[in-house]
Amino acid sequence: MAETERAPGVRDRTVTASDVEYAVRLAVTALRAGEALDWSVAAGSLEWDCRETAEHLADDLFAYAAQLGPAEPPLDTLVPFAFARQRPGGPANAVFADREAGVPGLLQVIESAGALLTAIVRTKPATVRAHHGFGASDPEGFAAMGVLETLVHTHDIAEGLGLAWDPDPDLCDRVLHRLLPDAPAGTDRWTTLLWCTGRADLPGRPRLTEWRWYGEPRPAGATPAPVAESRRADVSRRSPVPSAHHWKVGAETTAAALISVLAVDLVITGDYLYAAFASFGAATFARDAVKRIRSRAGR
Predict the structure, then answer these.
(1) DSSP 72
(2) What is the pLDDT of residue 209?
(3) What is the DSSP letter of 291?
(4) Helix-helix angle 139-161:189-196, to 10 degrees
(5) pLDDT surpassing 60 at residue 90
(6) Cα Rg, the chain, nearest whole Å
(7) CB neighbour list of residue 271: distance below 8 Å, 6 or more residues apart
(8) Which residues contact residue 244 at a Cβ distance below 8 angstroms, ignoring those fewer than 6 apart?
(9) Spatial separation of the C-alpha atoms in residues 58 and 19, rounded to whole Å
(10) Average pLDDT, the chain
(11) For residue 270, is it left (φ>0), alpha (ψ between -120 and 50) or beta?
(12) For residue 205, what are the contacts with CB-CB under 8 A and spacing of at least 6?
């Protein structure tokens, strides 16, 4: 995407590749102060520890770059990297850091993944669109996602380690404007970003337990709805009319259940060979349903 310098005195709220680079640099600098600390402690309010959260951050930055990478990025699914968990309940990543490299190596992995996203956002045309679970987005949108993930997950890690972390409010404001256009105005920008991601309270407002951002580029002059209306609208878009995706998941799940019942009946009657074939069929339908769900999940 074309990138220009922000002129003094001009309020430019575009998120750029330089913002990704800046956010990652701030984050790594802050986290280096905790190199000697125990990174196996919980990262803030997350169920992951600080090391896992740092790996998840690196994986986010890498995944956003990878999604924009193909000559024709997919619009309905993720680029098919293999994601895995190192433990039940841990983050599903394509990127992990070598544990023998310690915290310095972990931070270097974050820097490297951030550099990949910076470079691809800087070079991709603004007209490019790529799939994300929160809406097909452009390079600016993926840049904003990378900045958001960097800011909030550094907050999680810093909270777990007891480190100071207070990022640039102008950077927070640009992310809010691009991804969370219904965010409250006239409030502290960093606290508002934390509130929008369920990590802080705002006076007179309940803490959010569910949230999302909006990756789709907005038409010029579009006016976002207020917070409550926007979030209700999001729920209504997903619930009343099942899409083809939901019908397929439902059909695959139902088929898996019916074939499983048939397999049990075959075992009872002693038809073990046919029971084995039925079990294989049920597993296939269940696997396809899981793949379809994962392909639609936001990262």
Answers:
(1) S
(2) 87
(3) H
(4) 90
(5) yes
(6) 22
(7) none
(8) none
(9) 16
(10) 82
(11) left
(12) 184, 195
